[in-house]
Design a protein that fits this description.
- The complex is a heterotrimer of chains A (about 270), B (about 350) and C (about 280).
- Helices cover about 80% and strands about 0% of the residues of chain A.
- Chain A is mostly helical.
- Chain A has a single domain, classed as MetI-like (MetI-like fold, Orthogonal Bundle).
- Chain B is built from eight helices and 20 strands.
- The longest helix of chain B is centred in the middle third of the chain and has 18 residues.
- Chain B is α+β, with helices and mostly antiparallel strands.
- The two termini of chain B are about 20 Å apart.
- Chain C has about 280 residues and is mainly alpha-helical.
- Chain C has a single domain, classed as MetI-like fold (Orthogonal Bundle).
- Chain C contains 13 helices and no strands.
- In chain C, α1 crosses α13, α3 packs antiparallel against α10 and α8 runs antiparallel to α11.
- Chain C starts with 12 loop residues before the first helix and ends with a helix.
- The chains are: A mainly alpha (about 270), B alpha+beta (about 350), C mainly alpha (about 280).
- Chains in contact: A-B, A-C, B-C.
- Chains A and C meet through α1, α3, α4, α5 and α7 of A and α1, α3, α4, α5 and α6 of C.
Chain lengths: ~270, ~350, ~280
């Protein structure tokens, strides 16, 4: 009785959804690509092989790598502490780990300026030891780590939580040590969630803009990451080059997105 | 005694999970820790394994105090309720895990695992993953994994709970045979009294964190020590006031319980021994139970369940029959006494406590 | 005798908790504390003057209104997308589904410049819109569009799993009882997905409040009109006015935490009425 309009309605809803996604998501992607080629292939090639662009690319990759390694290790260790044991203050710790999600990237940058900058109590000591944090690479790493801090922990905690501790207990009873238990028993359960969260963390770390722009100081060739490089080109009205460099980031984003979906698909397949 | 548990207490926050638990288990016995959920039986088992630590009390196995010994050094095998098989390892690797951890030579591991696989009837399935096995097969693998390092004591937490009813009966028999063959002292936790009675040599009944009674299944059935055990093991009907039953007036207004076989049901016209002690009761329910009828009776407002032989003179629902209660359990506080009907003259002075 | 210390069976407690606390302390707690420390060097009256400056108040208003409107748009389209992606099988569904996370994967600055190019008066969408009298770039509409882009995945991804796991028997029962499809949606399905939708709404709203990169290019950043609060923090910092930057940041932070807190409340309430504990 209601089958026919249901079919029609379904198609209308599908069309609205598709149109919305095309308008909101595909159009901006397409614009980056068309704008990057508007001034010709030559400009494009020059922009992406520009010395400062390449430096910015390397810096972005380095910062991303360090961030992802640190936060992945942290995520695994924190998930172990928070799901294999019960202790007082556990809920509070989980809440604290989530704090960076609620903090604006600009504020994330600000707090590191306050902690390590001219105003800070640490400043005399940092100066004495000739350590530069703010307006230098350590500051960029710190800000990026902060912004992506909960990514891995948040993704794998529910996975471990849902599983309970029986397998680990069985391994303990048979005399296995921490390392053996983790690698042989726990890790295999984690690997998809871990891979998934590492991908998300990479995306965010690579593209972080607000926090990094606060602590970077924008020293060309020194503290510019790729997103900051794009901003500077854009602000200087070098639109073609700006979009050319942006298109690199778009491609990275598309690869990350594809990887994310692949991982999700593989994980689902294995579960079945 | 092989296993000696003395004065164990364990609290989880405000909740007393185990209170002053004391019991022993013979070498080579297959013992059941039986109780309703929340009675502390699993906590007790986990404390013996070292997965939980008692607040006070001693756990002694084979004259060795285990309290401060690491779980892996206690020489216990543990079968978890949901088996806790390592999901990402094959059957072979699961069973071999404990042996690899012990750094046993490869060839020896191979041999031992194959031996165990044959023992549990899973030869040829070594390369499967747990997800590819049936519930019963998983249980066998969990069993093999637990006994692979040759433990002195095997602990099983609700070993049949996750298996469907049909396979469960088979597995009970299988477990009994297997433990018997290995002559391995074993303790298993269950909430199912039929399971405990069928499988165990000894049963330890727990309730609300306390050990109510320990004994062979027959002992528990014949001579329950507490009102709880009376109700938990075997069929029985609770009585609010034993005085209401003819022949037990001397007991005073104490509560009690009757098992179906304690009640004689007679056709109204039948010859009855001790006729002056018989009471009229109305048949309210009659159900065919194969070898007997189960009769629901209304005895002056008190509902009773009794059995009635198939070859006796037929009775019908609504009919008034003669009922004679041969004996009953009378409760005084936490104690239980088996009391015979004084008309039978066996115990003219009233009653005596049993255990 | 018996242990006063609770022994733990699974190894690695001290190690993992110690590392977690140390890393969280260094990366989160100390930096966050420095914010509170810095603001305490400000007197109350200076703090009050800083956060009630008309230009700053205007920026709060812009941030709040635009985030809220964007979150509302996302609530509508997020529910629609989740519904369509879960309930219908159509060619291209996988691709649409895979695209949802694009705003998470795309650097915000890139999103910012491309949305600006798209909606500027010369842009592919901006030009026709301007022809019918709607200016997008460098107005609050532009900010709303940027924040809608950023917040798009939150509601879809919050609602999708709930819809997927929803047992269709309730729906079928209601249909058999003669309820119309619309009625079924509002009385049976909506109550089930509402908590998840509210959670997603809160997350999108919170993200919008703090968002910087995607907004600043399209906003035009005119004081009192299209200047968002995070940008003002940035401006103060560039003037080395750390005290005022801190004051503005603190107010924003309190607002974000309030949103997070409400989200958590919704989540725990949802658990109650769905009967979990």
């Amino acid at each position: 009785m209601r089958r026919k309009p249901e079919g029609l309605w379904a198609w209308i809803l599908i069309l609205i959804s598709a149109a919305f996604l095309v308008l909101m998501l595909i159009a901006p992607l397409a614009v980056v690509l068309t704008e990057s080629l508007r001034e010709g292939l030559k400009v494009f090639r020059a922009a992406i092989s520009d010395f400062y662009a390449v430096r910015a690319l390397y810096l972005t990759l380095e910062v991303t790598l360090v961030t992802v390694i640190l936060n992945t290790l942290f995520g695994v260790v924190a998930a172990w502490a928070l799901t294999r044991f019960n202790f007082r203050g556990k809920r509070l710790l989980i809440t604290i780990i989530d704090i960076p999600f609620a903090v604006s990237p600009v504020i994330a940058g600000l707090i590191f300026i306050l902690t390590f900058g001219r105003m800070s109590a640490l400043n005399p000591w940092l100066q004495a030891n000739d350590i530069k944090v703010v307006f230098a690479i350590p500051g960029i790493v710190l800000a990026t780590v902060f912004v992506t801090f909960p990514f891995v922990a948040r993704e794998i905690i529910p996975v471990l939580e849902a599983r309970g501790t029986e397998e680990e207990e069985a391994a303990v009873l048979m005399g296995a040590g921490l390392f053996t238990i983790f690698w042989r028993v726990t890790f295999p359960h984690l690997r998809w969630a871990l891979l998934y969260s590492v991908i998300l963390c990479t995306a965010r770390a690579m593209g972080e803009f607000g926090a990094v722009s606060v602590v970077s100081g924008r020293l060309r060739g020194k503290t510019l990451t790729l997103p900051l490089h794009v901003e500077i080109l854009y602000d200087e009205y070098h639109f073609g080059p700006a979009f050319a460099v942006a298109s690199l980031l778009v491609m990275a984003a598309v690869v990350i997105l594809a990887a994310r979906n692949l991982v999700e698909w593989l994980a689902k397949k294995e579960r079945r | 005694m092989y296993v000696k548990i003395t004065g164990i207490n364990k609290r989880f926050g405000d909740f007393p999970a185990v209170q002053d638990a004391t019991f022993t288990i013979r070498r080579g016995a297959l013992a059941a820790l039986l109780g309703p959920s929340g009675s502390g039986k699993t906590t007790l088992l986990r404390m013996i394994a070292g997965l939980e630590h008692p607040d006070s009390g001693d756990i002694v196995v084979d004259d060795r105090r285990l309290n401060d010994i690491a779980p892996s050094q206690r020489g216990v095998g543990f079968v978890f309720q949901h088996y806790a098989l390592f999901r990402y390892m094959t059957v072979f690797d699961n069973i071999a895990f404990g042996l690899k951890v012990k750094k046993m030579p490869r060839a020896a591991i191979r041999q031992r695992v194959e031996e165990l696989l044959t023992l549990v009837g899973m030869a040829g399935l070594a390369k499967r993953y747990p997800a590819q096995l049936s519930g019963g097969q998983r249980q066998r693998v969990a069993f093999a994994r637990a006994i692979a390092p040759s433990p002195h004591l095997l602990l099983l937490d609700e070993p049949f709970a996750a298996i469907d009813a049909k396979v469960r009966r088979e597995l009970r028999v299988w477990l009994r045979d297997m433990v018997g063959k290995l002559n391995l002292t074993s303790i298993f936790v269950t909430h199912d009294q039929d399971e405990a009675i069928e499988v165990a040599d000894e049963i330890i009944v727990t309730n609300q964190g306390r050990v109510e009674q320990r004994g062979a299944p027959v002992e528990l059935y014949r001579a329950p020590a507490t009102p709880f055990v009376t109700g938990f093991i075997g069929d029985s009907i609770q009585l609010d006031n034993c005085q209401l039953i003819k022949g037990f007036e001397e007991l005073g207004p104490v509560p009690g319980a009757v098992r179906p076989e304690f009640i004689g049901v007679f056709h109204p016209e039948a010859e009855i021994p001790y006729a002056n002690s018989a009471i009229d009761a109305k048949v309210v329910r009659l159900a065919f139970r194969g070898d007997t009828f189960e009769v629901g009776l209304d005895l002056r407002g008190c509902p009773l369940t009794a059995r009635y032989a198939l070859d006796s003179r037929p009775i019908a629902v609504g009919e008034i029959v003669k009922v004679l209660v041969w004996r009953l359990y009378a409760f005084t506080g936490e104690r239980v006494a088996l009391v015979n009907n004084n008309c039978t003259g066996d115990h003219p002075q009233g009653y005596s406590y049993v255990i | 005798m018996a242990s006063g210390i609770r022994k733990r069976v699974v190894p690695g407690f001290g190690l993992s908790l110690g590392l977690t606390l140390a890393y969280t302390g260094v990366m989160v707690l100390i930096p966050m504390a420095s914010l509170v420390f810095q603001s305490s060097s400000l007197g109350w009256s200076e703090f009050w003057a800083a956060v009630t400056d008309p230009r700053i108040l205007a920026s709060y208003r812009v941030s709040f209104v635009c985030s809220f409107v964007a979150a509302c748009i996302n609530a509508v389209f997020g529910l629609l997308l989740a519904w369509v992606l879960v309930r219908y099988r159509f060619p291209g569904r996988r691709i649409l589904d895979g695209l949802i996370e694009l705003p998470f994967a795309l650097p915000t600055a890139v999103a910012g410049i491309s949305l600006t190019a798209l909606y500027s008066n010369k842009g592919f969408l901006g030009k026709p819109l301007e022809d019918i009298g709607i200016k997008v770039a460098y107005t609050q509409v532009g900010i709303i569009i940027a924040l809608t882009f950023i917040g798009l995945p939150f509601i879809v991804r919050a609602v999708q799993p709930v819809l997927e796991e929803m047992d269709s028997c309730y729906e079928e029962a209601a249909l058999i009882l003669g309820a119309s499809r619309t009625r079924v949606f509002f009385t049976v399905i909506l109550p089930e997905i509402l908590p998840a939708a509210l959670t997603g709404f809160g997350l999108a709203f919170g993200r919008g409040l703090g968002e910087y990169g995607s907004v600043i290019f399209i906003a035009g950043n005119m004081p009192y009109k299209t200047e968002i609060a995070p940008l003002l923090i940035m401006t103060k910092l560039e003037q080395f006015n750390y005290d005022e930057a801190t004051a503005v940041a603190l107010v924003m932070l309190v607002a974000s935490f309030a949103v997070m807190f409400l989200v958590n409340c919704v989540q725990s309430r949802k658990l109650r009425y769905l009967g979990h504990d």
